[in-house]
C-alpha cells in the first residue's frame, strides 16, 4: 500500500506520518512537503532511514512534478494536510494561502482523478464554519453553513468546496474532515500552546489577544491521527466528518493552565490588541464520527500534561526552531537550500 501524505513535515501531517509508520509497517509512506517556514524534517530523524518511509521535496502547486510523482509511485491513498495555516500570516498577506490551499488542492485532485487513487482524504478545519456565540448548547455540525472569517479559513473553505465538487462531478472517492484546534508534540512554536510553554520556560511575556475570552475546542493530535486513519479506511465516499475533542477552553484558561503546571507566575501574561476578525468561539459536535467508531482518548488535563512533558523533554527541538538552527539540518541532510 502506497500512501501519500502531503504536508508531512508540518505539525499534524508529521505526527500522522509517525502514526502510520508505527501502525502499518507494511505500508509505504510518501511524505511530500515544500518545507516552508513551518516545515521541519528533524521530527523524522528516527524514521528517515526506514525502508517504508520516503521524503520528496515538492510544491503541491507544481502540476508537472505532482503528476510525475503520481505516475511513478502509484499512490493508493492521498491524505492531504499540506496548507498554509497560520491565521495571522494570512491577514498580513493572503496570496500564498490562495495559491497553496486552493490551487494546490485542485492539482492534487486532478492527479488523484487521472491516476485512479483509491481515496483522497482532505484534512480541513472547523474555522470554515466561522464563529459560534457563547451559548454552550450550540455546536458546529457537518450541516453548519460555511462562513469563513479570515483569509486562511476562506482558502480552506474554497478547497473544501473543490473536493465536494470533484465528488459530485466525477464521483471521485473523497472524504473531508474538519478538526478543532490541535495540540501536542512538534507543534510549531508560534501557535498558542507551544508559544506559551516556550515563553514561560524562558521567563518571557505570554501575549494573549484581547481579553482572552475566545473559546476553542482542543483536540490532541494523536486523537486526530486516529480519526484520520478511521476515515481513510472505513468512511463511505463523499462524507464529511467533524473531529472535536470535547475540550472547550478560553485562551486565558489554556495559558493559565500551562503556567500552573509549570509552577510559574501569572504575571507573565500580557494582553495585546485583538486579532482582526477574531472568531469568538469554535465548538464541534463529533457525533457522526463517533458513530463510525472513533472516540478521543485524551481529555484536556491529560493531554496538556503530556504535551508539556514532551516540550520539557525536547527543548533542543523547539529552541532550535525559535533560533532558526533547524534550517542547517535541511541543508546538510538533503543537500538543498531553503
Give an overview in words.
The chain is α/β, with parallel strands linked by helices. It has a single domain (about 1-185, about 220-245, about 280-300, about 325-335), classed as NAD(P)-binding Rossmann-like Domain (Rossmann fold). It is built from twelve helices and twelve strands. It has helices spanning about 10-25, 65-75, 85-90, 95-115, 150-170, 190-200, 220-235, 250-260, 285-290, 300-315, 315-325, 325-335, and strands at about 1-5, 30-35, 55, 75-80, 120-125, 175-180, 180-185, 205-210, 215-220, 240-245, 250, 270. A seven-stranded parallel sheet has the order 3-2-1-4-5-6-10, sandwiched between helices. A three-stranded mixed sheet has the order 7-9-11. Strands 8-12 form a two-stranded parallel ribbon. Helix 1 (about 10-25) links the parallel strand 1 (about 1-5) and strand 2 (about 30-35). Helix 1 crosses helix 7 and helix 4 (about 95-115) runs parallel beside helix 5.
Amino acid at each position: 500500500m502506497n500512501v501519500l501524505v502531503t504536508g508531512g513535515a508540518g505539525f499534524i501531517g508529521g505526527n500522522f506520518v509517525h502514526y502510520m509508520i508505527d501502525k502499518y509497517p507494511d505500508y509505504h509512506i510518501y511524505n511530500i512537503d515544500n518545507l516552508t517556514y513551518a516545515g521541519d524534517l528533524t521530527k523524522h530523524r528516527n524514521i528517515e532511514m526506514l525502508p517504508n518511509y520516503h521524503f520528496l521535496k515538492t510544491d503541491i502547486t507544481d502540476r508537472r512534478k505532482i503528476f510525475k510523482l503520481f505516475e511513478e509511485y502509484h499512490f493508493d491513498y492521498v491524505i492531504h494536510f499540506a496548507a498554509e495555516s497560520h491565521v495571522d500570516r494570512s491577514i498580513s498577506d493572503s496570496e500564498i494561502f490562495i495559491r497553496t490551499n486552493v490551487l494546490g488542492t485542485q492539482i492534487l485532485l486532478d492527479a488523484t482523478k487521472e491516476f485512479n487513487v483509491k481515496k483522497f482524504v482532505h484534512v480541513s478545519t472547523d474555522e470554515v464554519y466561522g464563529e459560534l456565540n457563547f451559548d454552550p448548547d450550540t455546536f458546529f455540525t457537518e450541516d453548519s453553513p460555511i462562513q469563513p472569517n479570515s483569509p486562511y479559513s476562506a482558502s480552506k473553505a474554497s478547497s473544501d468546496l473543490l473536493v465536494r465538487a470533484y465528488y459530485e462531478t466525477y464521483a471521485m472517492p473523497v472524504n473531508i474532515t474538519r478538526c478543532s484546534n490541535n495540540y501536542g508534540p512538534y507543534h510549531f512554536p508560534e501557535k498558542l500552546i507551544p508559544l506559551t510553554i516556550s515563553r514561560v520556560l524562558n521567563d518571557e511575556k505570554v501575549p494573549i489577544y484581547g481579553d482572552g475570552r475566545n473559546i476553542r475546542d482542543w483536540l490532541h493530535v494523536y486523537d486526530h491521527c486516529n480519526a484520520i486513519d478511521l476515515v481513510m479506511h472505513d468512511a463511505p465516499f463523499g462524507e464529511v466528518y467533524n473531529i472535536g475533542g470535547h475540550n472547550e477552553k478560553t485562551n486565558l484558561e489554556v495559558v493559565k493552565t500551562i503556567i500552573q503546571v509549570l509552577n510559574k507566575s501569572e504575571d507573565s501574561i500580557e494582553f495585546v490588541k485583538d486579532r482582526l476578525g477574531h472568531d469568538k468561539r469554535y465548538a464541534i459536535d463529533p457525533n457522526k464520527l463517533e458513530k463510525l467508531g472513533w472516540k478521543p482518548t485524551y481529555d484536556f488535563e491529560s493531554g496538556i500534561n503530556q504535551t508539556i512533558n514532551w516540550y520539557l523533554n525536547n527543548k533542543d527541538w523547539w529552541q532550535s526552531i525559535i533560533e532558526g538552527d533547524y534550517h542547517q539540518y535541511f541543508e546538510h541532510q538533503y543537500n538543498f537550500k531553503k
